[in-house]
Amino acid sequence: MKFVDCTLEKHGAEVLAILNEIIQNSTAVYDYAPRPASSMVPWFQTKVTFNFPVVGAEGDDGSLLGYATYGAFRAWPAYKYTVELSLHIRTDMRGKGLGPTLLGKLIDVAKERDVHVMMAGIDATNATSIAVHEKRGFRHSGTIRECGFKFGRWLDLAFYQLVLPTPSRPVDG
User: Fold this and answer.
1) pLDDT tens track for 38-68
2) In contact, 55 and 48? CB cutoff 8 Å
3) Per the domain annotation, does 172 fall within a domain?
4) Is the pTM of this model over 0.90?
5) Is residue 66 domain-resident?
6) How far is CA 11 from CA 7, 8, 78, in A?
7) Which of helix, strand or coil describes residue 158?
8) Do residues 94 and 77 lie in contact, with contact meaning Cβ atoms separated by under 8 Å?
9) Number of domains forming the structure of the chain
10) Cα 162–163–166 angle (5° rounding)?
11) Is 171 a domain residue?
12) Which one of 16, 41, 167, 168 has the fewest beta carbons within 10 angstroms of its own beta carbon?
């Protein structure tokens, strides 16, 4: 296994396949319909434009085993040092330790890019994802009750955050 920077050309279809499987079969993403292939173009463009990483884990055969990324937490400028992350693992790779490792790689990139707070919105019933984040130092910071509805039930969204020691000299504006 090796860690790589994902690109649209090399990984777009696999990122989409992992994401769509999660949308269709879990509450890890509060979305209903699989996304079309065309959605990957603006998704990757946004990552490049705003210098948001997409860290991937490739198997020995070059296939994408999982990916971790982050984006803006909120749109106002004062949130510039806070990001919200996504961590998604291919079905056959879940439970093998890839999640914490990939999350660790994303945290390293966040430090290099002067992120101060990493946020993770996790379905409150997703004990595995919560454990992965807690293993990397994330702490529960609040839950929004019944804010989502999927698979015929109300969903609670738990927020977990990791405060990093970066940047060394934050600035306004």
Assistant:
1) 999 999 999 999 999 999 999 999 999 999 9
2) no
3) no
4) yes
5) yes
6) 6, 5, 32
7) strand
8) no
9) 1
10) 130
11) no
12) 168
